Amino acid sequence: MPEYPPQLKHKVIFETFDALNRGEAMLLINDHDPKPLFYQFQIERPNQFTWDYLEQGPETFRVKIGCV
């Protein structure tokens, strides 16, 4: 994923998620735990996503975010 300015990252992530079809997933790679994004998903897309850590740091966090 290309680098985005901080103020655009969550917007781009949600746009990417919204373009997924049911059953598809996206991979988020981050240099810190994206837990605040998880909470934002819970608020903005309740019961619409799955969140599976594939790698949990300390330097790289990889999260598979699925569309249910």
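[next item in queue]
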Amino acid sequence: MSLLRKTVHAVSWTLGGRQLQQLATLFITAVLAKLLTPEDFGLMGMVTVLSGMAMILSDTGFSAAVIQRNNLTQVHYSTLFWVNLGIGLTVSCLFFFAAPLIAAFYQRPELTLISQILSVSFTLSALSTIPQALMRRAMRFKRLTIIDTVVHLSTGTAVVVMALNGYGIWALVAQPLIQQTFKAVMMWWHCPWRPSLVLSVPALKDVFNFSANILGLHYLQYFMNNLDYLLVGRFLGAEALGYYTLAYKLMFVPIRNICQEIVKVLFPALSRLQDDPKALLDGIGKALRSTCYIVFPMLMGMFMVADIFIETIFGEQWAPTIEVLQVLCLVGLVQAVITVLSVVFRATGQPQRELRIHVARLVVMLVVLLSTIQFGLVPFTWSLLVVTLMFMVVYLRAVAVLLQAPLSPLFAALWPALGISSVMALCLWWLRDLLAKAAVGGAHELALLIVTGAGLYGAGLGLLWLYYRRYDQRLI
């Protein structure tokens, strides 16, 4: 099978699995929102920001080296596994003893026990890091998608059962532990590789520079993606963070996950083209266009129905989430482009270039977000959009310079999906006005808008396909 067919096959399986997982996430989130309080979500969101930073350290960037490097041996893989496991154990211990400091930072004593229980997850995660990277390197994305989907559904079922039985916030605390346990078991069951009892310092040094840059990059990315969580939890409190967390779970995280799943496939595929800038530009253009076709209509559709969706599915107690969700939909449009572009730096073995961009972005974000947090949750979210939009332009320019290409092919990849999605959104706005005059609301209005939006977007794609076919061009 050619590289192109392998990539298409992998993306198809990955996105199909992700769509199923998103539907499950929506159902699980709706059930949990009925059973738990905004404060429960907020408390979990507080500790999740810091536990996520520790989780990145337990990976150390070794998985990216396993995927990108072409000359690694069994000695390398075994060394990286044992070092990674040792770091995971160390991070678990450090996080356990840091739990009182986390509680003191947020001024919530109950976070001490929650943080101590969550510390186990870092060791569990380290167990599956190298086997998963080896399966990605081999482009076994069909098997990985099946594993992720089974783990996702099993974890969601267990968490809902716990919430139904009155465990409250502890259902949320148990979620990452159950997920990492299931994932480790499934990865070792399906990955044929086994580590040898060897620890080589030269092998570790061989990948250290690349892995260190990737680790720094992951840390900056994570901190930027969660700086808003950290500031909202610290300055606006658990309830406000609960509303923000729900908005994130409903749209921004699923959309970001779709982009990241595409990147997981693109990374090994484009790494094989790292010595051919023209082929790389063509590949990233197709990936960007495909991602926009999937992500843009979902985000713009959610923007148009956010108020009806929240009030119908979750109830009026979650009404403060509505405007935050709408702004995050716009942030998601921009972040989707950035996420896809970021793979170019890693595929060409130059993550240090992206690292410099992230340092600048982090400084700007910190200044802007700290300046706007005092005005409340909604102005804070709008400022996040402004910063993200600014750095999308920086990313586009940096990728064009790296590939020694003009910006026009990258911009051209955005317009088709953006145009069709904008027309769809305008039609939905007009339809909402008609339904309001006809006194149609609630679940019926939501269903009509979703079906109409999907139909309009499908028709738009069909017309675009006919246009491209007329000029002997491809839709993707």
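[queue empty]
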